[in-house]
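Continuing the series of single-chain predictions for the mutant panel. This is the parent chain; the variants come on the following pages.
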Amino acid sequence: MATKQSPRTPIEPRDLNAPFFNLRETAWLLHCSYETVRRAIKAGLLPCSQRVPGGVIVVTREDMAEYHRRTRTSAVRTRVRRQARVAA
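Parent structure:
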């Protein structure tokens, strides 16, 4: 029995070397939700394009790489003071 998948579920792209990706594929590649991709586009953080008005929205590989570079977070370094062990 086939299950029905939501149209907003991120999916793995058929071709990982493709120059363009739709929003579901972009979400899968960025390890985020479909809605996060839409919010990034609406906020102007992730450029996109449409070939025809009302058509499929696509994101280029270069734009996705730039978005990832600008928005990735790094671990905060904490300074740990080590105390000398006393031999007993």
